[in-house]
Amino acid sequence: MHDRLLSPYHPGGSRMHRMPAGLKAGGAAALVVAVVLLPRDAWAGYAACAAFLALVAALARIPGRVLARRILLLEPFVLGVAALSLAQQGGGRVFLAMLAKSTLCLCTMVLLSGTTRFSDLLRVLWRLRVPALLVTSLALMYRYLSVLMDEAARMTRARRSRTFSAGRGLAWRGSATVAAQLFVRSSERAERVYAAMCARGWRT
């Protein structure tokens, strides 16, 4: 599953893939801002944005099942955020509006990541004079996130291989132990990587 999260780019030779990364990133940002600024009851506007995204997906030639799988993978987070509005008066309408807006924004980002390499997006940020430390942090995070997820998977398998009794409490305790050990190992790895970078002349 983490491969789909860490490698969302779908190689292709479509017109959307060949467009400059800066143009795509700017268009995605503009669409997200437009969706956020739409009134709650602007369902015609939501439908127009959805139709535009469907047209972009068709031009990008990304299989529908691939897009649907990635969207459904992240949709629970959207539902969790939108569900917070149910506690207020008239929460049903607010919930539907937030769900529509969040889903449209999510689809926009999924299409952007599916047609643009992450390295190209980093170069766009660099050209926009985003602080170099932030760009470098994003690049290192993207590079080492898969390493940390693989490390967490190995630690989880090791913990399960040493656990011979079932129980929800024991499972939660084991998960907490794995999370704590992963945090310690991540900190140690970050210190080693930083020391190696400084030894090779890197400076903030």
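The above is record 1. Record 2 follows with the same two-line structure.
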Amino acid sequence: MTAPKVSVLIPTYNYARYLPEAIESVLEQDFQDFELLIGDDCSTDNSAEVIARYAAKDERIRFKIHSANLGMVQNWNWCLSQARGEFIKFIFGDDKLFSPTAIGKMVALMESNPAISLVSTASSVIDARSAAIETRNNFQPGIRDGKKVVVQCLERPANLVGEPTLVMFRKQQAARGFDTRYRQLADLEMWFHLLEKGKFGYLGEPLCAFRRHESQQTNANRKSGKTEDESLWLLEEYFARPWLQKMATRRMLFAQIYSLRKLPAAGENPMLKEIKLALGSGWFAFFYIRHKITRPLFKLQRWVRKNRSAP
């Protein structure tokens, strides 16, 4: 059997309500050289029925209903391990592709430059009823150095690349899988891993949609309080890289100190002490004052952008 160009992976748990939209957004793509692999993590709703119904109609759909709950990141890795395509395109069970040209345009950008290790797009944020409520666009379209994107993410600090639904990457470069130590930042850690390997390609059209709703995993992670230290783990791992220490900006150093300062594990952390020394107290004071002055303006700009993109 000839391997498909793209493996579209849908890891899902109790998203029967949204799965038809996610699956149909794949089947409606202009680009058709794909397989669709669905990993259901032992859902308790009627997800299995929804998945089986679609699989019966299209031989490109493969699926597994796990007999026991693997956990979110483990299910991502199961999907990744079963993929046969050269390129990987995740879509979460509660998200969707927002344009029938999404996969084709992402493949074209990946194939235009073999140095690209990760592609992402602008996104439309949708609500529980699939109404668009916001458009997110974090970069100018084009190709940029992957390591510089890592620095940009640490400067904010934020996942500027986006959720797994927004990206495409090469399976070979992600062979080690997502790091299961992480629950909230498992995707960002993988993006850093891939961005170390090559360039970042970005498409400025909102080709993919990320859904906000009360039962999404992000809300559960934040309420649990079990993911607070993940930002510190990620910084500890990557700040040890000589290339990052060389490329680190004062803005990045300040952003990490400021964002991590209240974590219980941060107080005596030797790496944070090293970062504070590298920045210097004078620069910290400068950036702190600037942050306090500009933060209200930044919030206003975000509010304006959000409301402009709302229907």
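The radius of gyration is 20 Å.
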